[in-house]
Model the fold of this input.
Amino acid sequence: METSAQRRYRSQRLTGSAPEACASTRREDSSAEREDARSYGPNAGLMLRHEWIPALIEREHPEISFIEVYPENYMKRSERLLLELESLAAHYPLTSHGVHLSLGGVDPLDAAYLEGIAAFFERFDIPWFSDHLGASVHGGEILHEIFPLPLHRESARRVAARAKEAQARVGRPLLLENTAFYFLPPGSRWSEAEFIREVLEQSDTALLLDVNNLYVNALNHGLSLERTLNALPLERVREIHIGGFTVDAHSGTLIDTHAAAPVVPVWQLLEEVLRRCGPKPVLLEWEANYPSLEAVKTQLLFLEQAWSGARSERKSA
Amino acid sequence: MSERLEEEKAAISLPSEEEARYFDSLRRLVHGECSAGQLLREWNPAALDAAAGYRLERNLAFYARSAKRRRLHFVEGIFPGLLAALDKEARGLVESAYQKAHGGRDVDWLGNAAEFRQLIVALVEEGKLHPCWRDHVHHRWALYELGLLPELASLRQRASEAAEGLAINPTLRVQQFEYDPIRTKGEAAGEAQLIAYFVSPHHLKVEWLRLEAPVLAAMRVVDEGIPLAAAAEASACSLAEVREQMVHYAKRGLFVAA
Done:
């Protein structure tokens, strides 16, 4: 029997071709076109699983344009791990996606953490860094989740001030990611898109747009994706994340677990976002139940296809 | 900027009491100090109908479960068996200690576990945990840092086989001890560090040794499974020296080297 989550899932399809269709109609770019595409900047990235490092450096994987890492996994760690990462960095550009900044929290920003990531970025030549529009620390204690923030002007202004400070102290552009939230915090008066716009404009930071989170939120809370996309500051998108969700057996809620492949409507949403904001780097996230590197690379081909399509449209426009 | 605007700016960057209360309620939720239902009653979402209220409660409960799963996954991932081996009180202490330690999101938990180890040590020093746990976490941490936790089973197997080759009673050794040798990169020619780790039902022991060439060769016999003669040759020492080291340490219960 179809669950309500499944019904909502079916009803939220955007127009566009499915990834299978993308694969079957994927045209063979000439080498010149491919070279040109690469020179535009990184397009298809992969979130690092540490055990993939040997396979990643053993031979070239042209499907992977950049690798993203959780900096917390490598900070304050043995030199051995850092040397492994260094060998990877010799083959791929690295970007950073943190979980400890807790920009929406009320604890003071963690100065030692900011210094640590700044040094990490320096060592690995990381051009920008990202973290979440959420809270993950309170009272000095790790919450082990990224919690949603009250959506109103005062909260947005406070988060923006913290984002501005973090960006200045690290000395690199900061990208803020829209999160999946499974309840609306008390006192919320704005939409998520309004909140994001206010934070980014006040802090002059960029948007890391997670399309799976957009989709999950739309399904869980009955939101219109079209309206959300129209309200988001897409002109500030600098990177895009795509991943998979699972359904919580207790509540039927879609959870952004990165433990499954992205579903067709999320691929379609990615295509729509790329159409609207132009070709931006897109990263595939896997956090659990991940397949082999070879299987993941097939998914990266979908990314590149979507990215190339957006780029062609942008050129012809 | 005018004084009034400066004041306004400062006020904006401070959390409202409402926000602070909200985050504290989340902290209590993930640390098991209150249930999702209690939290829901505190928030008193009068506008929600029963179905929406139920859904909100289930989703809050999800956050609590997810946070707990991540916490335990971390502890068990790096210190396998630690929680299971502790009595209820000590387990509570360890979990509580972890709540103050840094954690990451990554399911590999290559996160900032060093602080957790320090907290365990602090609990030992305060007399709240048996001293064996200090050695245990030091040892486990070292293995973890060197990326050798996944290899323990194979190392144990090789140690056991080497013991058989030396006519040492492997049954006795396996019953009484577990042996986890690790090596760091050689600090100087012919030297390395070794942790020998022994577990009996009531005893944990860790020793850090500085290895001379024969000891290193003996360790390689166990660690890498290479023949005694080849290990001796590679370390520029005699077969007898290597064998002597292995027998010596085996008799002490320090199987590796020797």
Observations:
- The first helix of chain A runs from residue 4 to 11.
- DSSP finds twelve helices and twelve strands in chain A.
- Chain A has one domain: 4-23+33-311.
